[in-house]
């Protein structure tokens, strides 16, 4: 697909054409086989902790959207996968330097050509987003979508850092919980339930 065809497919919401640019979900998840995975959220509280070495020691490090990393001591530096629901400025993309980009947002018109044609690009299926939205009763955060996705994978463990469900707000913005369309209480309860029922999942609090 060339650039003009991409923009046409994006404008017309041609999901099959956009999906043709993506690796399959099965191939994406197979890449996690046997790995310890660190999923790094953007809670401000993470900046007060010292988990950077643990994060960078994981077999796979996944970050979200603008992926703020104010200090290596708190956040580490590696980014193997970057999960996006926003369009990144080029300077931010260069700073984060992800090995693979996952587009998680159902808003396909935000998807940019550079991301869609990057090595190993993954487009999260709309039915998966809608199923989790129904489960939570609100549009899921990018973090929740990643947890849902990664727990389907043959990974060894999934450890969440920087997830306090907006209790300390986000390092990547100034909005409060009332200004975003998510149900953080529902997500917190859902994650706690998954942590109880799946021994691979742990939340660093």
TrEMBL record:
Keywords: Glycoprotein, Glycosyltransferase, Membrane, Transferase, Transmembrane, Transmembrane helix. It comes from the Bacteria. GO terms for cellular component: endomembrane system; membrane. Coiled coil: none annotated. It is a single-pass membrane protein. It is found in: Endomembrane system; Membrane. One of its GO terms (molecular function) is sialyltransferase activity. Pfam families: Glyco_transf_29. This is Glycosyltransferase family 29 protein. It comes from Paracoccus siganidrum.
């Amino acid at each position: 697909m060339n650039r003009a065809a991409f923009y046409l497919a994006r404008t017309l919401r041609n999901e099959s054409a956009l999906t043709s640019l993506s690796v399959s979900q099965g191939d994406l998840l197979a890449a996690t086989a046997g790995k310890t995975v660190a999923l790094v959220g953007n809670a401000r509280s993470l900046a007060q902790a010292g988990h950077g070495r643990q994060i960078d020691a994981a077999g796979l490090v996944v970050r979200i959207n603008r992926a703020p990393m104010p200090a290596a001591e708190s956040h580490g530096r590696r980014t193997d996968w970057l999960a996006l629901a926003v369009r990144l400025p080029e300077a931010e993309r260069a700073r984060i330097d992800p090995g693979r980009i996952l587009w998680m947002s159902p808003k396909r018109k935000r998807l940019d050509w550079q991301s869609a044609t990057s090595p190993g690009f993954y487009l999260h299926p709309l039915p998966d987003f809608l199923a989790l939205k129904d489960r939570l009763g609100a549009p899921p955060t990018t973090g929740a979508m990643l947890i849902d996705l990664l727990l389907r994978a043959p990974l060894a463990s999934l450890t969440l850092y920087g997830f306090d469900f907006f209790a300390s707000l986000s390092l990547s913005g100034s909005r409060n919980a009332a200004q975003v369309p998510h149900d953080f209480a529902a997500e917190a309860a859902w994650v706690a339930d998954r942590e109880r029922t799946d021994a691979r999942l742990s939340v660093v609090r």
